[in-house]
Design brief:
Layout: H1 2-10, H2 17-29, H3 34-47, H4 51-62, E1 78-82, H5 90-100, E2 105-109, H6 119-123, H7 135-145, E3 147-151, H8 158-170, H9 176-188, E4 194-201, H10 210-226, E5 230-237, E6 245-247, H11 249-259, H12 265-275, H13 280-286, H14 288-299, E7 312-317, E8 322-327, H15 329-341, E9 355-358, E10 365-366, E11 371-377, H16 382-392, E12 393-396, E13 405-409
Parallel strand pairs: 1-4, 2-3, 4-5
Antiparallel strand pairs: 5-13, 6-9, 7-11, 8-10, 8-12, 9-11
Helix pairs in contact: 1-3, 2-4, 2-8, 3-8, 4-9, 5-11, 5-12, 5-14, 9-10, 15-16
The chain binds uracil (URA).
Length: 413
């Protein structure tokens, strides 16, 4: 069977549902070898998958492991997924906010790679916080608190773990049907009623252009809704970092400020846009979402009493007066990465204390000698990080703030 499957895709043909099911089963059971799976990924990268094949691949990957369910807990069950960026800590605010609004949020998140941060790394900056809850603990936390943010258990979409690792090794990550199946297989296994997607666009994002991000968002919305999960997508700006902080513990601190009704305007605005609930703003301002966050952190073993902090800070100053016309998310992300906040390989450790604070955003006025950014360092690669951050900013003479939410994609009938 695998020989036929490879020959058909190599020639650009269409695979049947049975052939896709057999391939995914073979990947998990080991009857499809790693070289065969790698060849298949390469053929798909070049030849593509149509919508029907993508739906079949997503379904088989979702069914390749445990499907979570929440007996005895009243929904609706809702989650959000971001395609990743720099300073994107929305999940830390949105999960407890939704829980406070009465929705249940079984959020399975991931770790950062390269210049993009990961929700689990940020939360693990909180002393004691555990991201490895087993099924019983997930269920109890969702029942008692209304939300959890934890890591992928070994049994959730195991085919994705194998295929994603191979994609990383074979330069086949940037392939829309494979991304759709990878992201949605994990989310659809969570037992959701609703899924809100945040597809980032720009220098710090996976998708650099609006057109590519829109294609990905539309495909995910089609496949998610095809499964009966109400799925919407927002295309949002990642040309500049979100909020002020990029790192790990500094993003927790900024999330807490936002959960208490403060925080940077763009983080607050995006959280409320993704929340999509008429009472979200009132609840955020009341401080109740922060109390819910505290309960989630305690339920997952964490303590907010003594957050770690970086041993040293270095301020980067503006060399001219004018308006910020660019604050490059990729350069800021690279700075946080070289300081130690990110990882190159999945098995690398991150330093929770280090990162970058960006004091000026696109459209802001700045005077020569004013702080542009602060590096929070542990004395590693400080000069490289300083050069990255200094190069991230462009100062011009025109104030032109960037729009944050670029488009919203709903299911088409
Ligand atoms: N994130 C995922 O989980 N999978 C992809 O393929 C890309 C981003």
């Amino acid at each position: 069977m695998i020989d036929d499957i490879l020959r058909i895709k190599r020639a650009g043909g269409r695979l049947s549902d049975d052939q896709i099911a057999s391939f995914v089963r073979g990947v998990v059971e080991g009857t499809v070898s790693r070289p065969q799976a790698a060849a298949w990924l390469g053929f798909v990268f070049i030849r593509g998958l149509d919508d029907g094949e993508t739906v079949a691949l997503t379904r088989e990957m979702t069914n390749s492991g445990t499907r979570l369910s929440w007996p005895g807990i009243e929904g609706p069950f809702v989650d959000k997924h971001s395609t990743g960026g720099v300073g994107d800590k929305v999940s830390l605010v949105l999960a407890p906010l939704w829980a406070e609004l009465g929705w249940k949020v079984p959020m399975i998140s991931g770790r950062g790679l390269g210049h993009t941060g990961g929700t689990l790394d940020k939360l693990e900056a909180i002393p004691g916080y555990r991201c490895d809850l087993d099924d019983a603990a997930l269920h109890a936390t969702l029942r008692d608190v209304g939300c959890f943010i934890s890591g992928q258990t070994g049994e959730l979409a195991p085919s994705d773990r194998v295929l994603y690792a191979l994609r990383n090794e074979t330069q086949t990550v940037e392939c829309i049907p494979l991304i759709v199946a990878s992201i949605l297989s994990k989310k659809l296994a969570e037992g959701l009623d609703r899924l809100v997607l945040d597809v980032k666009v720009g220098s710090g994002a996976f998708m650099k252009t609006f057109a590519d991000a829109k294609t990905l968002a539309e495909a995910m919305v089609r496949v998610g809704n095809g499964y009966g999960v109400h799925t919407t997508a927002n295309l949002t700006d990642m040309e500049q970092p979100l909020g002020i902080a990029a790192g790990n513990v500094n993003e927790v601190v900024e999330s807490i400020e936002t959960l208490k009704g403060g925080g940077p305007a763009d983080l607050r605005a995006l959280t409320l846009a993704l929340a999509g609930h008429p009472d979200a703003e009132r609840v955020l301002d009341s401080g109740a979402a922060y109390a819910r966050f505290e309960r989630m952190v305690h339920a997952q073993g964490g303590s907010l009493a003594a957050l770690p902090h970086a041993p040293r800070e270095l301020v980067v100053l503006a060399e001219e007066t004018g308006f910020i016309t660019r604050c490059d998310a990729l350069a800021v992300g690279r700075a946080a990465f070289v300081l130690g906040a990110g990882r190159l390989r999945a098995e690398d450790a991150v330093d929770p204390r280090v990162g970058v604070l960006v004091h000026k955003k696109v459209g802001d006025r700045v005077e020569r000698g004013e702080p542009l950014a602060t590096l929070q360092t542990a004395d590693r690669a400080v000069e490289r990080a300083r050069a990255e951050v200094a190069g991230a900013f462009t100062i011009g003479q025109v104030a032109a703030p960037r729009p944050l939410v670029l488009a919203r994609i709903e299911a088409t009938p």
